Transposase IS30-like HTH domain-containing protein
Amino acid sequence: MDSLYSAMNQRIKGKHLSFEERVIIQTRIKDGFSFRAIARELGCSPSTISYEVKRGTVSLYHGIQG
């Protein structure tokens, strides 16, 4: 069953991230997950997560400053 799930979780190359995936990225970053862990969950490359954060489509969580 695990191999079936992992096969279903594979992304199609060149497919854009959905709004829901961007929300997941933002939430996971807020929770302290690494780019690699987020990428594994979404089935994409860690560099994809990095690019999304650098582009500004996903904001980093910096906490309350003061």
User: Anything to note?
Assistant: Residues 17-60 form one domain. The helical segments are 2-8, 19-30, 35-42, 46-55. The radius of gyration is 13 Å. The CA atoms of residues 36 and 46 lie 5 Å apart.
